[in-house]
From TrEMBL:
Keywords: Membrane, Transmembrane, Transmembrane helix. Residues 83-218 form the Dynein heavy chain C-terminal domain. Gene3D superfamilies: 3.10.490.20. The chain crosses the membrane at residues 17-44. This is Dynein heavy chain 8, axonemal. The lineage of its organism: Eukaryota, Metazoa, Chordata, Craniata, Vertebrata. The keyword Transmembrane helix applies. InterPro entries: DHC, Dynein_C, Dynein_C_barrel.
């Protein structure tokens, strides 16, 4: 279970309005203070509504430490809300705590695309999480050779196999032969929808897929 806490930050307007109020003594002080209070209340209300709405979102991708894809009656089936970024951060923290002497700053996310189908996975990973249901946009996937290929004609999205994501203690640069593929919540690729990135093997140059704009999506809608 992931617990999200929202620490309300004072809106930028407050930092510019409150300081002069502390030093000015005029009939406008109560009015300015009221405006500041209304601004703070409005900001808090908007943030509370956005958190409430995001907690109800569901996607076709599954992020679970004990993943077994199947009907909802399956006890291993665990579909999380749309909080994958926090989910991965929590996983990094757990791995850091489990290994004495590790610092969170030196722990990074690594991944491996599995060859087993989701139906054959019967147990959770020793460390990390299994991710299933991501859609590859702009390319296809060679299951046998485990690398990116050109998308088939008239096929917009390709369902990726199960990806094992885990945390390692390493600050080494990424292998330049691998394609760094971003993951987004929705097909609209913005900073708000960005989650993280995974590395995918490729027989071609990674620049080829950069020009293709290849990305992984949690939801294609």
């Amino acid at each position: 279970m992931i617990v999200w806490s929202c620490v309300s930050l004072v809106p930028p307007l407050f930092s510019y309005v409150f300081k002069p109020v502390c030093f000015l003594c005029s009939p406008l002080v109560p009015c300015v203070s009221l405006c500041v209070f209304v601004c703070m209340f409005t900001t808090l209300s908007v943030r509370a509504m956005s958190i409430k709405d995001s907690s109800n979102l569901q996607t076709s991708s599954i992020w679970s430490p004990s993943l077994h894809i199947g009907p909802s009656k399956n006890p291993h089936y665990n579909k999380h809300p749309l909080m994958p970024a926090g989910f991965l951060t929590a996983m990094r923290q757990e791995v850091t705590r489990a290994n004495k002497g590790w610092a969170l700053d030196t722990v990074t996310i690594n991944n491996k695309v599995l060859t087993e189908s989701n139906e054959r996975i019967k147990a959770p990973p020793t460390e990390g999480v299994y991710v299933y249901g991501l859609h590859l946009d702009g390319a296809g996937w060679n299951i046998k050779n485990i690398h990116l290929i050109e998308a088939r004609p008239k096929v917009l999205f390709t369902c990726m196999p199960v990806i094992h994501m885990f945390a390692v203690r390493s600050t080494a640069p990424i292998d330049p032969k691998l394609y760094v593929c971003p993951i987004y919540r929705k097909s609209k690729r913005t900073d708000l929808n960005y989650i993280t990135a995974v590395v995918l093997p490729t027989a071609l140059s990674p620049d080829h897929w950069i020009m293709r704009g290849v990305a992984l999506l949690c939801d294609t809608t």
